[in-house]
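User: structure tokens for this one?
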Amino acid sequence: MKPIYITLLILFSLSASASDFKKEQRWADQIIDFIIDGDAIWLTAGDHKILGIYTSSQTSHVKGAAIIVHGSGVHPNWEEVILPLRTALPETGWSTLSIQMPVLSNSADYSEYASVFDEIAPRINAAIKFLHQKDINNIVIIAHSLGSTMSAYYLSSNPNTKISGFIAIGMPGASKDTKMNNLQSLKKIKLPMLDLYGSNDLPSVLTSATERKRASVNNSHYSQAVVDEANHFFSGKNSELLTTVRQWLNRQ
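Assistant:
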């Protein structure tokens, strides 16, 4: 193979598998100055710096911390699901660290996100390291939509990770790509888990609910909950979302 073809192959591989870091920076530039609750921080994940928003517990007794993982193409201060969780949980003793996950262009198809799954572990590991430096060892992941798929893949691939619980919100089911196939990931996850969704959620979430439960049959710490009349983004249902999440966290 000629050198020019090797170079083109490498460049194509990098462009096809990397997050859109320019888009990540644009998100950061847009939201940092408007963060009211919490502090913007920068985490080192591999060769890159990623944005995180850390909000410390407002109670004298810190129960633990939640790593908040957003869905496709957005940012760690997204107003639906992410912002309510990251700002409200500290009121009841849970610090939160919402982190920027890999993003692709607005035109990218959902299935194309499989190409950035190798970037997930460095980001979550960086978040864990940061929280450990805060002397917080009881750490859970709370993830929404594609973020729940990313987190399930991470947990299934890293069984010895220092995560004590997992809340998946609006999780879809099977996928042709192994990395994005939640049914395969769930078979390997054994830690306490809440599979939470709305009764008016996306079809991919609703139709796979029974399959997700079946895939978790060997996880005695798995539970499933449905919020009546909630859609995929829990529009108008933030109170119910927070109540369900808090109740589960308090039982762990």
